[in-house]
């Protein structure tokens, strides 16, 4: 299996983005189901995926300056192009065209958003995500030190800090990583475990059962048959149970099965996963535009063309902004690495450590 890409995980990211879209569409469309936690389920899957992938992709690499640069370039190239373009376009629209625009980015908060710390509409979730990227570097350094020198001091310090943050997570604002740390932590644990485990053919039938149960659970939530026992989104986000479920879902789908691949690794879901960040950022402006054109609530049959419209805009943004921007940032990163290594050749300590299961 390719350590760099798992199609079912990509498809799960696409589903998470679509759940967020549907959760927000409930407020704008006359839809039959009124479970307003759809969006929250999608966001928690995003957080769990981030923790899982960071641990799965990087904890097996030696912690070195050059590998940290690779990590930083990879993370920045993933989110910066679409994010910064949409922030700047939203700022222009809000200030010069429409003061009621759904993304209220003005001169008062533009700097916060450019620094990935804003909270206008869906941008709030980007802030803890970026903060986690910085926090993960500490976890990576501590785990590397333990694996190389058997030094547990760093891990113990991070464990103590995590316990304190988790204990007071309800006191933190939603844009602070401490309020969502349990999602990233359980995701990281799942990713580290996955690095040690190789799926065997005889395990496929059990995986098929788990994946079928996962699909049934998600479908029941979407259909409104399974009512989540939370009074609101704050209680939902604070729950350890939802963090465990998110991590388990990601972990189980990292192993292949016919059912898992059929639902999550098909071409449509993988496409949604590839465009998921653009879907997440663009669906609210599309909803706002549709609402401006037609102020009355839409009926259910309009949901599919609306979803197609969101996906079309997101695909265009992915192809015209995200991918070219990512290539540009990665090229700049490669140039920086060459110059950096010319000055500090010892920084290229990029050998892998024995975490097990590295099949690249």
From TrEMBL:
The chain crosses the membrane at residues 12-31, 37-59, 80-97, 122-140, 152-169, 181-197, 209-230, 236-256, 268-288, 300-318. Its EC number is 2.3.-.-. This is Acyltransferase. Keywords: Acyltransferase, Membrane, Transferase, Transmembrane, Transmembrane helix. GO terms for molecular function: acyltransferase activity. The keyword Transferase applies. Residues 7-316 form the Acyltransferase domain. Pfam families: Acyl_transf_3 (PF01757). It is an enzyme of class 2 (transferase). The lineage of its organism: Bacteria, Pseudomonadati, Pseudomonadota, Betaproteobacteria, Burkholderiales.
